[in-house]
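This follows on from our talk about sequence and fold. I would like you to pick a protein and set down its sequence and fold. Go ahead and set the record down below:
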Amino acid sequence: MINIVSHYLRMNFLWSKTNPELKKMTVVVFCLTVLISIIMISNNNLVFSQSLAKRPTLHGIRIQTPITGEKISIGINNLSISGRSVDNESSNCQVSVIVNDIKPYQKASASGLNGADDYSRWKFTLSPDYTELKNGTNKITAKLECKDDLDALMFNTIKITGIHVHGSEQDKLSINTIEYTSGAVNNESVEEQNIDKKEFNQTQQFVNHTISYDQNSALPQSNLTTSTIDSTLNAQNTYTDKKMVLAPSIRYLVILIPNEGHESTNQPKKQLPLINQPYVPQNTIIDKSTSIIWLNADVGHRHKISLNDSNSEKIFESGIFRYNAASKPLRLNETGSYQYWESNVSKEVPDFVMRGVITVTSQDEGNATTASQNKEDIVGAYMVPAKLLDKYRSEFEDKGFTIDSTFTYKDLRGGQKGTGLEQTLIVRKTHNIPLKKVIGDLEELTPTLPYN
């Protein structure tokens, strides 16, 4: 541009001496040339800046479990690491993992719905053959490698904390049971959960007790006594009656918070929940020696359980627990009716409250002795797309679960992408398997569901 102006000034001086008319014409041509040049430069800069704005960097790979900052025992074997990536049917990618920069990278397994090459979901099991967690900070990096160029970040790194856990405390890590009894609370658990230290003064004897529910709970009334109750684990009953009755031989009940459990039925169809209850089972009847655990399978949502006694006084709060995590086990050592709930869960329906009821009974002494000898069962419900039932049945059984029963139903929302119109409710249990392993297996399976 500077050269053009300089050349013009020299030529203009010579031409002005010989031809005034020519001078006028050159001035006009020069001005037009300068104007066009300025417009072209401005447009080029605009196009360049727009091209940069249209190229956001995608996160090509994410580690979903464990999460940054999570505390994990360094003695744990076969730690499960899982996540997602941008891989799809048209791309050709692989995922590998490295822990604490110990080379080489270790190949992860594809767990997407489209077969062994679908790394849209992936998992990796950290075994001692490769390396083990160390005390303190541990770095985990996942890498995505694709044959086709992708405009995406190909690495994701998290840091977790390895801690020492000694002896029998190993199985108790992250699953300390919170106990409530008349006038007494497990102090250690109170510190961990920051629970309100209000005394629990429930003293009623649960004899021929009739349970009453408010209109919002949408649960039927029932009459119960302290005589031995028959276990009802049938999946169809759990769906239809919103109820599960457990024998005293059950040590733990894992209550499912299903995907979209936070949605109210009082809204458009596309926002409805997938099942007819915010907790599965919503109404449970247990022996006072059985502990309750809530598993959060509500994708992208955190939950916090509050529990009231029969006098509608809050006696327990779980603290917030994230998606694909379980609450601490809770054991209620006094018979009676307890309502648990969560409010402020729906933006569309602010008045919607998630509600469930736990009824605690006391079995006859003669039967209680027999039950205690076999008290290693862990029971719970799980929800999967019906078209994937065979896949998940196989995965449950491979991990030592027994499928007690199943029931297939049309979900209330009418299907989501990748799930179909029908869901299957699974009632499953384990025997003589540590709670920590059961919860770990469930947390490994949950992210593989197409709800994510």
